[in-house]
Amino acid sequence: MLVALACALVLLPASAAAAEPAAAGDRGIVQLSKTPAAKVGAGEKAPARANASWVCNRQVTYPGPYYVDFTCTVYSGAIRAYVVCSDGAVFYSGTMYAGATYQMRGTCGPPWTVSTSGEQSLW
Question: Which controlled-vocabulary keywords does the entry list (predicted)?
Fold first, then answer.
């Protein structure tokens, strides 16, 4: 009986193991890395009133999705990323300035999932 129980625990799918609630400090957007981008044009010298120019890739994992990974290269101006969680919580990243590539992770849970995510131009 004990051996069967031990085998059942070892063979649980990853989604069953990931069902624990996230601690309050585990929610939000965390910057994982920042690297200088190759020559990006005007960069930070662009006027503050100019619209930002950037390219972001977002990767979402399933089941869930409990988090979304962002990789953003900012060419001019400044942007921030955001995630909206299924419980209505909204989290914003720090400001991402021109001239660098940023990697971030926005986390909602479990048990909450990512409802939507994106980026906003700040200037």
Answer: Signal
Distance CA 55, CA 31 (A): 17
Q: What percent of the chain has pLDDT over 90?
A: 57
Residue 71 forms beta bridges with which residues?
57, 103
- Can you list the positions of beta strands (E) in 5-66? 28-36, 53-60
Whole-angstrom Cα distance, residue 15 to residue 13?
5
Rounded to the nearest 5 degrees, what angle is found at the Cα of 74, between the Cα atoms of 42 and 53?
Answer: 70
Q: Spell out the domain ranges in the chain.
A: 20-121
- 3-state SS, residue 1: coil
pTM over 0.90: no
C-alpha dihedral sign at 22, 23, 27, 31: negative
